[in-house]
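Section 5: illustrative case.
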């Protein structure tokens, strides 16, 4: 049943009036390119689309539907009617009494390139971009990755201590980060009403700590427990302390970004080690140092490709190292854009969870444009290729849903912001990002379909949302084989269903909530992503029966933020708003 709140009718009426009065303000016209960028929302200081928070003002006899599609919808809001009867034969049945893992968050990485690009924009446009990712009218990101030192997406290789032999880290300094990266993070934090969890990852230590005095595919001198490995742990601890001094709390850190040499042809900075070295580093150096200096910080092991996870448990079978580990980080690059339909290694995540149910699994890096041209969607940005740009959005959704449906607690994009060439990067490792900026004039930025794909999750699944049981009927399982799906219950007791239709044809969908005796139906358009929000439902708690590792922060509703995003195509389709069947009330 639904909780009846009469004030909800007033809020719903005001919200509907706001929708009617609002201007569709997503434009694909680019002043820089002097053309329409199909499938892209172009933002300037004069105009930029926002996301209408219609799910906060639902009446009790309707569900909110947010749609993004190849033909042009961009988190377009509509409603469908709710029936107060269950439908056991529905295509999808949600059971909110069966719960799994809880959500930590969704977000991206505060790389040097991202910060450089933000500050290359006109000052007013900078605020609009930060709002787009972190504000209440945007994606409401709650997760951020912070590189420790330089990465391939820096202008040059640097460390926080270049004084050779300074094992005590007396010359440690993050001054390099104070120009752009730290201010960017601080601005993001100030925009977030849900709060943010920030985790750190290192690519390589200072060169003088390595065996060949280089950060490229390097190794630390000696062995874990030795003076250089102890100094490395101190280096990381100093980073956490220095950021805390800037008002930026570090929630967690990974032991090392991609420690295995999966891609031997890549020659950017990276410390290489195997699972036993990681185990020994954690138990002899990193774990004890962090427990002493930062006892609340969580250590995330591996931080590498998903296909390695089941063979990366030496740290966990050793009690001395396992005591320091809270979770495992995974990357997606072996998916190869689902070149093989069975890619994703999703079952491995579930197997890992079943073996180590007290640890969270977090997707810590992914991006598009990492392949070579001619393979799937190719290399670099696809700003002016609407077919590839849409495919990348749907690949994002497919991987996120697959991860979440197999016990991942969140998903982290790589660069938050790149320029239209896919940089800057000191090694020309040009890739794509949900937002690209006009690096020539600083007067525009471009929201690609990937941006909206991320929003289908980040905006509607706040921290502490819990995955719930979702079953597909036997009659629909073959018809909907290319529809990816996952369902959650939020801390505010809203039920959220996310669907991604990879078929080139539409599907008429029926949905039932078995515990609440509710059902509805809607059309899932061809090549589309939908988030359906139902709530607030009674008699459920969003505390997970599995591990819980997310923030208790929840969304702050605001009825003043009622600007719906427009379709980028006048032929864009939306779900039909059905007439209510019974009067009732509800409220990502």
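Designed sequence:
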């Amino acid at each position: 049943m639904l909780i009846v709140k009469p004030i909800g009718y007033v809020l719903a009426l005001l919200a509907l009036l706001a929708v009617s009065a609002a201007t569709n303000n997503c434009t694909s016209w680019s002043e820089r390119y002097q053309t329409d960028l199909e499938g892209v929302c172009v933002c300037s200081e004069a105009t930029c689309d926002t996301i209408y928070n219609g799910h906060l003002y639902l009446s009790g006899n309707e569900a909110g539907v947010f749609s993004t599609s190849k033909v042009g919808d961009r988190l377009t809001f509509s409603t469908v009617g709710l029936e107060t009867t269950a439908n056991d034969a529905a295509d999808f049945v949600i059971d909110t009494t069966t719960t799994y893992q809880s959500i930590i968050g969704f977000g991206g990485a505060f790389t040097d390139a991202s910060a450089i690009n933000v500050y290359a924009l006109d000052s007013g446009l900078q605020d609009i971009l930060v709002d787009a990712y972190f504000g209440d009218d945007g994606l409401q990101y709650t997760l951020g990755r912070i590189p420790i030192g330089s990465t391939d997406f820096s202008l040059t290789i640097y460390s926080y201590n270049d004084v050779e032999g300074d094992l005590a880290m007396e010359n440690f300094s993050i001054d390099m980060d104070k120009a752009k990266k730290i201010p960017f993070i601080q601005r993001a934090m100030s925009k977030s009403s849900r709060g943010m969890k920030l985790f750190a990852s290192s690519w390589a230590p200072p060169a003088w700590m390595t065996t060949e005095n280089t950060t490229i595919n390097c190794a630390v001198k000696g062995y874990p427990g030795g003076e250089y490995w102890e100094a490395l742990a101190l280096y990381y601890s100093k980073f956490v302390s220095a950021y805390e001094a800037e008002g930026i709390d570090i929630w967690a850190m990974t032991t090392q970004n991609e420690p295995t040499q999966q891609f031997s042809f890549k020659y950017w900075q990276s410390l290489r080690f195997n699972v036993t070295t990681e185990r020994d580093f954690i138990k002899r150096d990193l774990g004890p140092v962090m427990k002493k200096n930062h006892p609340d910080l969580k250590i995330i092991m591996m931080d590498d490709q998903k296909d390695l996870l089941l063979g990366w448990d030496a740290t966990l079978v050793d009690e001395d190292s396992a005591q320091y580990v809270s979770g495992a980080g995974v990357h997606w690059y072996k998916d190869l854009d689902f070149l093989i339909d069975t890619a994703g290694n999703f079952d491995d995540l579930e197997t890992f969870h079943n073996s180590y149910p007290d640890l969270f699994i977090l997707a810590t890096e992914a991006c598009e444009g990492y392949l070579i041209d001619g393979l799937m969607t190719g290399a670099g940005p696809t700003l002016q290729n609407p077919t590839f740009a849409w495919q990348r959005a749907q690949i994002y959704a497919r991987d996120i849903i697959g991860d979440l449906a197999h016990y991942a607690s969140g998903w982290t994009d790589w660069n938050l912001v790149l320029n239209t060439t896919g940089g800057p990067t000191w090694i020309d490792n040009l890739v794509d990002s949900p937002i690209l900026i006009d690096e020539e004039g600083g007067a525009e930025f471009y929201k690609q379909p990937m941006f909206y794909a991320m929003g289908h999750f980040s905006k509607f699944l706040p921290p502490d949302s819990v995955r719930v049981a979702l079953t597909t009927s036997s009659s629909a399982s073959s018809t909907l084989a290319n529809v990816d799906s996952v369902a959650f219950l939020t801390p505010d007791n809203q039920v959220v269903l996310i669907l991604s239709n990879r078929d080139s044809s539409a599907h008429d969908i029926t949905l039932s909530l078995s515990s609440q005796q509710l059902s509805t139906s809607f059309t899932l358009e061809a090549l589309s992503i939908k988030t359906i929000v139902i709530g607030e439902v009674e008699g459920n708690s969003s505390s997970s029966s599995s591990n819980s590792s997310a923030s208790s922060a929840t969304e702050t509703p605001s009825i003043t933020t009622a600007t719906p995003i427009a379709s980028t195509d006048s032929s864009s389709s939306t779900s039909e708003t059905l007439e209510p069947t019974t009067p009732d009330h509800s409220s990502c």
